[in-house]
Design brief:
The protein is mainly β. It is about 0% helix and about 50% strand. Strand 4 and strand 5 form a beta hairpin.
Amino acid sequence: QVRLVESGGASVQAGGSLRLSCAASGNTYSINRVGWFRQAPGKERDGVAQISYGAGITDYAASAKGRFTISRDYAKNTVYLQMNSLKPEDTAVYYCAARRTYGISWREADFAYWGQGTQVTVSS
């Protein structure tokens, strides 16, 4: 089993920055990819960014490209999401998720482990 704990969510003004953290524990050796997803009020949960846990290869949703950066500290078993130039439409609960399978997939069903989420609110 893998346990994921997110932190770093806050309320910020538009144009501000936040860094979210996702700390993994348990059988972390089984993790191949870690992703960040978000769910805005009344909307479906969408993928934001993901990273291969070993090689650090990244992939971004169109909404995140150029503003968000995903990274990982392998020694600390922590994945980060640096979010810059935040917009009100970035307001959502942000979830960290991990999976054992290889390759790029944004399907939630492919991610076996999920954190509890952290709230990000961006005001105009």
